[in-house]
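User: quick one - fold this with hexanoyl-coenzyme A bound?
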Amino acid sequence: MTYETLLLETRGRVAIITLNRPQALNALNSTVLAEMRQLLGELQADDGIGAVVLTGSEKAFAAGADIKEMQSLEFVDAYRADLFSGWDDVAGFRKPMIAAVSGFALGGGCELAMMCDFIIAAKTAKFGQPEITLGVIPGMGGTQRLTRAVGKAKAMDLCLTGRLMDAHEAESAGLVARVVDQERLLDEAVAAAEKIASFSQTAVGMVKETVSRAFEQTLSEGLRFERRLFHSLFATQDQKEGMAAFTEKRKPVFKNR
Ligand code: HXC
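Assistant: Sure. Structure tokens for the protein plus hexanoyl-coenzyme A:
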């Protein structure tokens, strides 16, 4: 299947999705959303894929939601279509997804990167929620996910002033997991994804689910949820294999059973 706004490449068990609207700095329009939902649905169902890397161009991961597409919307249109709610499907993708960010990740672009499980940034990356400069506010999770990632002070600063944050600041603030040279960005993200895809996919899925839960519930509920899932892994062959391989000083062979 070919897409108008996305490129897909597979390297072993890793799928690389590249946002591809260079003429608009990868602005996220309704076609990007429809194609992302379609493609992620396919990758979800594909047992050959263990992890995904989402990236953009050197100049822009994505410069936001498509301003030209939404410019003439009225409140009633936005409300009745529940504008941007479709992105919840992207955030709800069940396999690990790493954002490899170079250049601008602004507005919806920053929000899309934050829907991924973690962000690896090139030194050139710039993050921001400049919606305030357009007379609106973030609408794809920016006020919520950014605040959870960097805390109230910096989230307020970014959302209220619309200023951009460079990769170094984003890493110290906790938004970004690693910062690398631009030339190494994709290789670093793919290597991380390959590593993840080599582990027991049951345990990997549970890590994603439990860490994500930390943002949804209390500590005691989260700890209980974690412990129960941890217990359940003793019903898997992969746990037997992983621990046997350790004691036998060999590499484990996980079968996802
Ligand atoms: C539509 C966009 C766009 C966007 C860039 N373009 N960002 N089109 N939506 N978000 C288009 C430009 O119009 C231009 O097309 C082409 O991409 C190149 O952009 P330039 O502005 O010429 O590039 P440059 O001078 O290098 O400036 C880069 C930039 C600037 C600083 C990133 O493009 C910019 O400020 N973009 C908007 C960033 C933004 O405000 N994002 C938040 C969007 S709102 P033409 O055809 O003119 O050459 C959002 C919120 C979601 O995401 C929820 C709200 C309700």
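One thing worth noting: The two ends are 30 Å apart (CA to CA).
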